[in-house]
């Protein structure tokens, strides 16, 4: 039974007052020893020797870190895609998120070609609202272009709480937009103060390469990789940056998977462009050598677009760029298909549903590959797993910080504990885990979602439908504060001059 919405999110009395004692608060800019008191889903006090109302549940955080809950900027729960539907739905997927210390996801509403954006938005809300265990929001896809789509953008942005729209430069004939359509969409979004997101791969080149590979009899998952090499990703990133630059819009590149694509983003940032790059847990934690694995299912389980890169130095390189702010935040692109779904493409890699796991393991994988390696300090860890997402998607300081007035989405993080990732113990519906066997330092000990303890002593206590849809206002300062001034500085110039008075050659009608 679904809980009526007016009763949702009201924490149970025994749990509506929480006091975390003895831990170190870590925000993106500073860390300090303090206790944290929460009531009715909001952080009410942060400090030493707090005077708090009685009856609070006390959580001991001695030797532990108190961090803002993770925000996964990129998921696809129960996405209808490639002839099937992603197996982790909004219940199982958000439950897994909470188990891993992520207290908010931003999923994708992806209309089909010709479908009304508002209709698709309503459909996604109807799927997600009764099922989500943690707070969530949506990016809305611009998967085709027309006057009606352009009109609907303002409805979605101004009335539905959406400030980010996703466009595809790949998936030809399905979701892919042409350059002129990207140009118009970016321009329309700029006018609204919304952020354009791109999946950057050259869909035309992928289609040609795919034909060639299948003709050569390369039909296994290694064909998927070879159909879309690094330069196919880097070219599209460069093109998206160029298009955004023509209309003076900010730009956000989702799932940055390769060194050369990341370099394009670094270069544009050095030129002062307003651009953000999102690597994902998969790309930071494993690599594309898996496509050459002798077991078909193992290789197919790693199929996603853009693919993981076979250059084994890629994950470390992407982490270095995250460390120095060339890349800003992390998602997962969590979009899972179980073995029998992957097997739809057993004779043809183009039919393997694209997508991998990540939502449950992102926090631990980034701690292991980023903090344990000495690349990120604990503040930067918080920045790239939570705060920067809250800022770029305009939810800060409601989300992404431990501060009075912020939502009580809080994790007690044990930096010393370890766990081994496995499909045998994960909470996701999918029957494979791309991080299988990875030992991670950094474990969420206690997870608090909207003021409720949802993970404690290794046990999950989630409730279906408890998460809220989070509206995100337009004109995120992180994306837009520099844009309006640039509009003035870079305005088109016209020269007033005397007219030309000389002879004019007659147009001969030649083509
Ligand atoms: O392979 C992927 N990435 N599947 C999900 C859809 C997308 O492109 O993000
Ligand atoms: Zn994508
Ligand atoms: Zn995606
Ligand atoms: Zn380790």
- How many helices in DSSP terms? 16
Q: How many whole angstroms does the radius of gyration measure?
A: 24 Å
- Strand fraction equals 15-25%
Strands of the biggest beta sheet: in what spatial order? Answer: 3-2-7-17-18-19-20
Indicate the structural class.
alpha/beta
Major sheet details: 7 strands, mixed
**Distinct small molecules:** N-(aminocarbonyl)-beta-alanine, zinc ion
Question: How do the strands and helices of this protein lay out in sequence?
Answer:
Layout lengths: L16 E5 L2 E3 L4 E3 L1 E5 L2 E6 L9 E4 L4 E4 L1 E6 L4 E2 L2 E2 L4 H10 L2 E8 L7 H12 L6 E7 L5 H13 L4 E5 L10 H14 L2 E5 L3 H13 L5 H7 L2 H17 L4 E3 L5 H12 L4 E3 L3 H5 L10 H6 L12 H10 L15 H4 L19 H10 L6 H15 L17 E11 L18 E11 L2 E5 L2 E2 L16 H4 L2 H7 L22
The chain binds N-(aminocarbonyl)-beta-alanine (URP) and zinc ion (3 copies).
């Amino acid at each position: 039974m679904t809980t009526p919405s007016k009763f949702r999110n009201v924490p149970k009395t025994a749990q509506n007052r929480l006091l975390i004692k003895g831990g170190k608060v870590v925000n993106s800019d500073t860390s300090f020893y303090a206790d944290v008191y929460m009531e009715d889903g909001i952080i009410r006090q942060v400090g030493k020797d707090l005077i708090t109302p009685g009856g609070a549940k006390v959580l001991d955080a001695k030797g532990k870190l108190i961090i803002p809950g993770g925000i996964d900027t990129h998921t696809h729960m129960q996405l209808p895609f490639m002839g099937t539907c992603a197996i982790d739905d909004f219940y199982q997927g958000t439950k897994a998120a909470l188990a891993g210390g992520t207290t908010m996801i931003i999923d994708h509403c992806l209309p089909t070609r010709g479908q009304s954006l508002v209709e698709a938005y309503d459909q996604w809300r109807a799927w997600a609202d009764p099922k989500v265990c943690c707070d969530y929001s949506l990016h809305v896809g611009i998967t085709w272009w027309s006057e009606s789509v352009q009109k609907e953008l303002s409805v979605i942005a101004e009335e539905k709480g959406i400030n980010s729209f996703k466009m595809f430069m790949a998936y030809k004939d399905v979701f892919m937009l042409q350059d002129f359509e990207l140009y118009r969409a970016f321009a329309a979004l700029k006018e609204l103060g919304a952020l354009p997101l791109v999946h950057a791969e050259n869909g035309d080149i992928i289609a040609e390469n795919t034909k060639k590979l299948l003709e050569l009899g390369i039909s296994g998952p290694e064909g998927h990789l070879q159909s879309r090499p690094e330069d196919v990703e880097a070219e599209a990133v460069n093109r998206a940056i160029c298009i955004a630059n023509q209309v003076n819009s900010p730009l956000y590149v989702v799932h940055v998977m390769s060194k050369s694509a990341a370099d394009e983003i670094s270069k544009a940032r050095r030129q002062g462009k307003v651009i953000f790059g999102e690597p994902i847990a998969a790309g930071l934690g494993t690599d594309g050598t898996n496509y050459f694995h002798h077991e078909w299912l193992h290789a197919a389980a790693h199929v996603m677009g853009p693919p993981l890169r076979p250059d084994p130095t890629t994950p470390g390189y992407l982490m270095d760029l995250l460390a120095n702010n060339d890349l800003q935040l992390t998602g997962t692109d969590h979009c899972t298909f179980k073995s029998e779904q992957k097997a739809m493409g057993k004779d043809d890699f183009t039919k393997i549903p694209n997508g991998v796991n990540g939502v449950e393991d992102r926090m631990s994988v980034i701690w292991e590959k980023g903090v344990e390696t000495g690349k990120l300090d604990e503040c930067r860890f918080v920045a790239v797993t939570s705060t920067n997402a809250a800022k770029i998607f305009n939810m800060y300081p409601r989300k992404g910080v431990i501060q009075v007035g912020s939502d009580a989405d809080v994790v007690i993080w044990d930096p010393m504990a370890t766990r081994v990732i496995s499909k045998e113990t994960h909470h996701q519906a999918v029957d494979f885990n791309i991080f299988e066997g990875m030992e991670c330092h950094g474990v969420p000990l206690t997870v608090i979602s909207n003021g409720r303890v949802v993970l404690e002593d290794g046990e999950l206590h989630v409730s279906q439908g408890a998460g809220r849809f989070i509206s995100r206002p337009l004109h995120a300062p992180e994306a837009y504060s520099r844009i309006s001034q640039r509009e003035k500085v870079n305005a088109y110039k016209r020269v007033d001059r005397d007219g030309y008075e000389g002879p004019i050659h007659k147009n001969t009608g030649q083509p």
